[in-house]
Amino acid sequence: MKCLDDFRLKLGQREYVPIMIGGMGVDISSAALALEASRLGGIGHISDAMAPTVSDRRFKTKFTRDKFQTFKSNFFNMDKSSVQFNLGQLAEATLNHVGKTMEAKTGDGAIFINCMEKLTMNGSRETLRVRLKAALDAGIDGISLSAGLHLGSFALMEDHPRFRDAKLGIIVSSLRALQLFLRKNARLNRLPDFVVVEGPLAGGHLGFGMDDWAKFDLATICNEIIAWLKAEELNIPIIAAGGIFTGSDATRFLESGSGAVQVATRFTVCEESGLPAKVRTKYFEAVEDDIVVNGVSPTGYPMRMLKNSPAIGDGIRPNCESYGYLLDDKGNCAYINAFTREAELAGTEKGLHIFDKTCLCTQMHDFNLWTCGSSTYRLKDTTNRLADGSYQMLTAEHVFKDYQFSKNDQIALPALPALV
User: Rounded to whole angstroms, how far apart are CA atoms 175 and 311?
Assistant: First the structure.
């Protein structure tokens, strides 16, 4: 029986261990996690979600504070149309986050950045252009375009000197989405270097409808896209993503024609993950019924998370003056609408409980929205329960190599720590 190490992902002239760690925000896919993937010969992601906040945490910058100081007079106003990002600071934050990560890179792998189109930031085109170009300026190996069709994103980068040098890819959940992307970008004579096909069992935002996501499966979507690319004579590697929990799961996708797999859930509880320790414990403790798909995200996409996430039902006042990453081009956000509605019904803004939407920016910043993959309840089976009842921490290297070398659907447990 083959294992994942019997295959290699080829992008251009380079070959990689066919393991890509997904780009989980905010800073769950940390620089440390991406650096380990690169060191081990695979591909790691960092996320550009809330890059100013990530820069503030990593490098003690003050971008979030400065933005709030600029717009604090608007805090009690529900009209957020005047709240704009400083594009120079946004570029600087991205340069900090990406540049310092790339400076520390070792090994034969690569580091990509995940860029969400749904981070519209009250200036969708301008802010996305800045984020993409700053990442390229900082030397990122590749960019994965996520959370949106990205029909115009390649055009935002076409005048950049690294547009044809960096590895650029798109995340889709259907053949139709890929066809739309290719048709829209045909004039640029620049195909994507890879396509991540994300199925309905992935964590966080899903590229399906709230009512029909369960009707789809990753293998069927991958097979359809692979067959179409072959018929069109397009040599673009497919990277399967969502619900791939063991090395054997991954190997089956490569045997069916995928070039690699993108995995994330098992890396959320690694030492290198950006998740706080107390949240990792919640992931280990989760049972299958704790995992839900709901519509609380203001983006309009369904989202998978733990149902006991503190963010669900929390009626916190929007703080777009500090964050505002989901404001559309007119300064609107679905959570602001929900907050305004509930405040008017209650006659007060205090003690509100809002269940249909959540303030995604603040809750993700505070690690109170526990997005997760469908197999999160299985994490407890990947490690040891220690004498004090806690779960033994895993390293990214251990999880990576278990994917790379395991067979027969087995999962290798880490060696128990030595007794002192």
Answer: 34
State the virtual CA torsion across 140, 146, 151, 155 in degrees, nearest 10. Answer: -10
| Strands across the sheet containing 303-306 | 204-205, 303-306, 291-294
State the greatest distance between any 2 C-alpha atoms of the chain, in Å, as a whole number. 65
| Cα–Cα dist 190/174, whole Å | 20
Long-range CB pairs of 411-420 (<8 Å, 24+ gap) are: 411/246, 411/381, 411/382, 413/382, 413/383, 413/384, 414/383, 414/384, 416/384, 416/392, 417/386, 417/392
Rounded CA separation 393/381 (Å):
12
Q: How far is 245 from 263, CA to CA, in rounded Å?
A: 8
Instruction: Please tell me the predicted confidence (pLDDT) of residue 419.
Output: 64
Give just the sign of the alpha carbon dihedral 168, 171, 175, 181: negative
* Whole-number Å distance between alpha carbons of 207 and 171: 9
- Number of helices (H), then strands (E), in the chain: 13, 15
Q: What is the pLDDT of residues 121-167, one digit of tens each?
A: 999 999 999 999 999 999 999 999 999 999 999 999 999 999 999 99
**134: closest CA among 113, 149, 120, 154?**
113
Report d(CA 278, CA 305) in Å as an integer: 16
Give the angle 55-305-85 at the CA atoms, nearest 5°. Answer: 30
What is the C-alpha to C-alpha distance for residues 202 and 241, in angstroms, rounded to an integer? 7
